[in-house]
Amino acid sequence: MPLIIPNNYHITASLRDRGITCIEKQSIKAHDKHTLRIGIFNVMPEAEKYEFSIMRPLGLSAIPVIPVWIRAANHNYKSSNKDHIKKWYLTFKEATKNEPLDGLIITGAPVETIPFKAVSYWEELTEIFNYARTNIASTLGICWGGLALAKMFGVEKINYAKKLFGVYASRNLNRHHRITGGFNDIFYCPQSRYAGFNENDLNIAADSGKINLLAHSEETGHFIFESSDERFIGHLGHHEYDAERIIFEHFRDLQKGLENAPVNFDVNNPVNVWRENGNEFFSRWIQNIYTKRYGKQ
Questions:
Q1: Which of 283, 246, 270, 233 is nearest to 20 (CA)?
Q2: DSSP letter string, 219-261
Q3: Does 238 participate in catalysis according to the annotation?
Q4: What is the CATH code for 3-157+196-241+274-294?
Q5: pLDDT at 297
Q6: Residue 143 is a catalytic residue
Q7: What is the pLDDT of residues 238-249, one digit of tens each?
Q8: Annotated catalytic residue within 143, 222, 226, 235
Q9: Which of these ranges, 13-22, 101-110, 235-244, 251-260, has the smallest mean pLDDT?
Q10: Domain boundaries in the chain?
Q11: What local confidence, expressed as pLDDT, does residue 34 receive?
């Protein structure tokens, strides 16, 4: 099914090269044909370079999707193309002013080691989470976005001495789950972060019924969870990444003087062993939103 995107969008050709159907329209009513309007609160470094990573798996869904790029109002996007952000991004208030969002993605951000309250857009994000509780069918937090979601349920993050970077074998903890049930019992997932969950807090939240734990790796700990009301799902990994993105991050870090050879991944002979499970994750997430909004297809 297609992505409904603006005319002259900068990665349309790249998406089509990957087999993604793109319909170019400046505006379309999201609910005329049961099309889902998905907000993407993008605070990744070099934000415009990340857009392809998230658009590709969304475009493989069986449901037509209108991606809505959202910027943090109090973030200067110093590593991003400011003209691009100004042209294609909305504030959250602008994005929800005239039409609702069916789903919302909170991306990763290079602020894992900073206390949440010290992040310039943290207050804005907590307001968005409060809005999402009753107005958005499902909110997905990726990497730092997942850590931020967990904070709402009393789960603190812990900082790592070294970046967790590579592709890790992981275990599916609920093979009947409507989203992660599509994973193999043992599946692979890229990770790229400097922080993770406090496992003690995580287990307390799970035992008290606040969250459900969905995936675990011996090397990375638990990294996918959902809220008990099924409105929030956190994924600390990067199932949206392709092999090229890992290579890009590897050389980007090397340019900064950081040693970070990815674990279980050869940048000189890259092999993507997570694509199928990653595509399934995003397709099922979109399908879950559609079912909540309109019932089964």
A1: 283
A2: TTEEEEEEETTSSEEEE-S-TT--HHHHHHHHHHHHHTT---P
A3: yes
A4: 3.40.50.880
A5: 58
A6: yes
A7: 999 999 999 999
A8: 143
A9: 251-260
A10: 3-157+196-241+274-294
A11: 82
